[in-house]
Design a protein that fits this description.
five-stranded mixed β-sheet; two-stranded antiparallel ribbon; 154 residues; alpha+beta; 7 strands
Length: 154
């Protein structure tokens, strides 16, 4: 087990199976020293536990936990390309999309679920640039979607 997966286990978490694509794309792709993930939904065993807009049907706290699940799915996608998460040198960028009620403005707090988990398991390598964007709707009526870009060692 990699050091990253050991840290996950210490948090009571395990990497899930890579989520199957919902359309014509791959979960992650490598180019040079970088891996880009597709947008990762908060799927658990292939299903969304919660649907709806944050600030309406979904609370900010629930959405933050869902963003954490997105991070786990993103790490699983990265691992599917490189085989060992200990090869991650740095998380370069996180982009979080939050399906938001019209008056909801707490997108950064939601995407903190992703950022905090990456920091917990990757330490300084988990510190990243980030965007947290409110959107009208996401696939399958998911409340949150996250994509990450990581730099990896050969």
């Amino acid at each position: 087990m990699s050091a990253v997966e050991t840290k996950l286990a210490g948090l009571g978490l395990t990497l899930p199976e890579v989520a199957a694509p919902l359309a014509s794309y791959v979960p992650a792709i490598r180019t040079g020293s970088y891996i880009y993930t597709a947008g990762q939904l908060p799927l658990v065993e292939g299903k969304l536990a919660v649907t709806g807009k944050v600030g309406a049907e979904v609370t900010q706290e629930e959405a933050k936990e869902l963003a954490r699940t997105c991070a786990l799915n993103a790490l699983a996608a990265v691992k599917s390309v490189i085989g060992d998460l200990d090869k991650v040198v740095r998380v370069v960028k996180v982009v979080g999309f939050v399906a938001s009620a019209p008056d909801f403005t707490g997108q950064p707090g939601v995407v903190n679920g992703t950022s905090e988990l990456l920091g917990q398991v990757l330490g300084d390598a988990g510190v990243h640039a980030r965007s947290a964007v409110g959107v009208a709707v996401l696939p399958l009526d998911a409340p949150v979607e996250v994509e990450i870009q990581v730099e990896v060692a050969d």
